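User: quick one, sequence for these tokens?
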């Protein structure tokens, strides 16, 4: 390569007339160690010594180039080695010796005499000298060997993928020969066809073939570099061999599962010990990669000096595709006096192989509570405990089961002013509650039952504006309408063919005296509520729409009030115009028979926005403007996982301004999501947890009162709870 560059420079200088010596005196003397050489390709090497004497009066360097008569300039062939490639600068009278090793014929496939020209030149002296050399290329004994090249000497691939190894073979002979090409170094079952190929090679031509290699799953293809060896052989000749490397790239991650449990308390006995029994946490890791790492653990805590810990087993290599559990034991000294000490611990996992990256997630939080032997409040415990017991058993206590619901609460809702709450339960009652009394311990919050039924209440909804009527949906498919002023039942609605078809949601239609109900069979019914309708329940049925999925939730969208969003099983979401009976499916949601949308929510200030929650723990905010106008598909504003472990989100609610969204579900968390322009606000992307309860939560509602956010939730433990939160600093108004 160096000689080629120097030759180009020399030729350029020659074109510019700069290489002609200034005088006729000889500036260099060149001598060859031989005038003729003999070479057997593949069996012998012909060596030549070139001596150059600087006969000028200047310091100069020298270069050597060997040219072959009849050589094809298009064929790049390494047929000789030169040492040194460029000489150092020599003073006048000094000698430079070049060593040349001829390793192959300069003309591919030629045997016989070849004329070589040895060209010695100097850029400093602007002169050159040429010597003629004769080379006899003798064919080797037996069959003529092949030339073999790997077009990709280093092959890289990932598990599960197919890659190809291209191989190029040159036939030096004058006849077509049959060759056996074999790839070695890899398991035979990795090859798509075979590790051996029999091919015909045309005379004096390159032939290209390839091996297709498919790597198995990560558990069977460890990340490593395997030696690769390809051999091409013609019977009776020396095989041609080319070597390379097959690198299996690392894939996957190490999953750090939630510890079991995440919170422990010490001691487990009343006896004081200098060092009590340890708290044990089970840490589980899953190796979803093709590496064999070891995992180490570090505990970070502000109270680390008060803790001792051990991990069993430690530094154990984990095979790909396996799940391993480690037991973390933590000791803490128990104080004599004081409060219960809470140690917040971060279990930080590290992987020995840097290619794998950190575990996902890299750390898990733990909590250890250490109780003292004699708490400081023990002296007051008797008196305070008695007062607490009296209050616990009184009708002022929101948690007293004797004065509230006796079964799971399925539905909660604020009235229009946000002062009164209605709840529906499996105990077959609907109850009223004072909002402010939940935060006033000496004021009764329960207003008593407002509706009773023979079956469990699935849903309870105020009639908008006046809030003077209440619609409840029952487990047996019946809908009851109650007059809240007179506290009496007005109507009992049930279609003849919909009995025992549980009601999943009810919705008062805007601007019209009618009521919508959705059922487990997929039926959505519209009922007349005006005084002109007949008293009989079934005669009030105005319209029936049948969907091919259980309709879990309804929501009115758009300013006209005729477009209804219907959502339910199979993650189905459709828009239904009850005036025209036209339907439109929203294609952003897909799922199987165990997937379903659980709740819908809209905001009065943005009637074309729709919030969607599902049982996979996802919340989606949609802009229905494009699809309501019929010009385009509905636009997804934001979508996120509202539950850390993908647990079901059972209910959501929006403030009237659309600035705040709340969610509850199977994880027992009451979460607040500040919004901005229909998306999560950047500062609150993870939401704000207002409560974390041990039981699943079924329903939620939200109101803004006096610069505070008020939330109400209903849960499986029969409780109705009220939560408060100050307004979060966002740009939403």
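Assistant:
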């Amino acid at each position: 390569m160096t000689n080629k560059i120097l030759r180009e420079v020399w030729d350029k200088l020659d074109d510019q007339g700069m290489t002609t010596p200034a005088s006729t005196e000889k500036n260099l003397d060149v001598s060859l160690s031989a005038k003729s050489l003999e070479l057997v390709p593949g069996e012998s090497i012909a060596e030549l010594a070139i001596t150059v004497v600087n006969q000028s009066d200047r310091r100069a360097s020298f270069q050597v180039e060997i040219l072959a008569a009849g050589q094809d300039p298009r064929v790049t062939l390494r047929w000789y080695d030169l040492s040194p490639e460029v000489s150092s600068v020599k003073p006048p009278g000094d000698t430079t010796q070049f060593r040349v090793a001829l390793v192959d014929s300069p003309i591919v496939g030629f045997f016989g005499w070849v004329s070589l020209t040895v060209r010695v030149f100097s850029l400093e002296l602007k002169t050159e000298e040429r010597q003629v050399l004769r080379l006899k290329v003798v064919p080797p004994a037996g069959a003529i060997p092949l030339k073999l090249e790997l077009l990709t000497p280093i092959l890289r691939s990932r598990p599960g993928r197919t890659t190809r190894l291209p191989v190029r073979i040159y036939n030096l002979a004058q006849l077509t020969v049959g060759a056996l090409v074999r790839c070695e170094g890899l398991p035979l079952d990795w090859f798509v066809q075979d590790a051996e190929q029999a091919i015909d090679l045309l005379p004096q031509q390159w032939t290209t073939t390839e091996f297709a290699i498919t790597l198995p799953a990560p558990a069977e293809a460890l990340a490593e570099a395997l030696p690769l060896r390809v051999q091409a052989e013609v019977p009776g000749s020396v095989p041609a061999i080319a070597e390379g490397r097959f690198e299996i790239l690392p894939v996957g991650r190490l999953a750090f599962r939630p510890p079991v449990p995440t919170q422990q308390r010490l001691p487990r006995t009343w006896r004081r010990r200098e060092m009590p029994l340890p708290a044990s946490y089970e840490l589980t890791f899953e190796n979803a990669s093709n590496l064999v790492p070891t995992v180490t653990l570090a505990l970070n805590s502000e109270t680390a000096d008060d803790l001792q810990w051990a991990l069993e087993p430690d530094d154990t290599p984990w095979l790909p595709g396996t799940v391993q559990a480690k037991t973390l034991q933590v000791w803490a000294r128990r104080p004599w006096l004081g409060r219960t000490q809470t140690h917040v611990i971060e279990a930080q996992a590290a992987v020995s192989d840097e290619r794998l990256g950190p575990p996902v997630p890299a750390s898990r939080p733990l909590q250890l509570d250490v109780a003292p032997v004699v708490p400081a409040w023990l002296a007051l415990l008797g008196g305070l405990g008695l007062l607490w017991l009296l209050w616990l058993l009184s009708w002022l206590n929101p948690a007293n089961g004797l004065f509230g619901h006796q079964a799971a609460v399925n539905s909660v809702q604020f009235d229009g002013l946000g002062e009164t709450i209605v709840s529906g339960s499996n105990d077959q009652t609907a109850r009223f509650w004072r909002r402010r009394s939940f935060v006033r311990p000496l004021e009764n919050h329960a207003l008593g039952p407002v509706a009773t039924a023979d079956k469990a209440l699935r849903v309870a909804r105020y009639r908008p504006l006046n809030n003077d009527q209440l619609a409840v949906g029952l487990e047996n498919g019946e809908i009851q309408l109650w007059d809240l002023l007179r506290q009496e039942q007005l109507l009992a609605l049930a279609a003849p063919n919909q009995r025992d078809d549980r009601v999943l949601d009810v919705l008062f239609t805007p601007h019209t005296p009618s009521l919508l109900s959705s059922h487990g069979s997929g039926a959505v019914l519209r009922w007349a509520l005006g005084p002109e309708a007949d008293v009989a329940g079934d005669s009030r049925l105005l319209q029936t729409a049948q969907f091919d999925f259980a309709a879990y939730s309804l929501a009115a969208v758009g300013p006209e009030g005729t477009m209804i969003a219907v959502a339910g099983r199979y993650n189905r979401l459709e828009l239904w115009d009850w005036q025209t009976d036209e339907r439109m499916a929203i294609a952003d949601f897909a799922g199987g028979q165990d997937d379903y949308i659980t709740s819908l929510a809209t905001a009065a200030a943005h009637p074309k926005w729709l919030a969607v929650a599902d049982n996979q723990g996802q919340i989606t905010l949609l802009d229905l403007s494009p699809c309501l106008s019929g010009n385009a598909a509905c636009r997804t504003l934001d979508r996120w996982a509202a539950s850390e472990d993908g647990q079901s989100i059972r209910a959501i609610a929006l403030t009237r301004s659309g600035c705040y969204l709340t969610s509850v579900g199977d994880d027992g968390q009451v979460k607040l999501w500040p919004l901005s322009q229909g998306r999560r606000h950047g500062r609150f992307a993870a939401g704000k947890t207002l409560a974390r309860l041990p039981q699943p939560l079924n329903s939620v509602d939200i109101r803004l009162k006096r610069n505070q956010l008020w939330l109400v939730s209903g849960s499986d433990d029969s409780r109705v709870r009220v939560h408060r939160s100050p307004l979060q600093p966002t740009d939403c108004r």
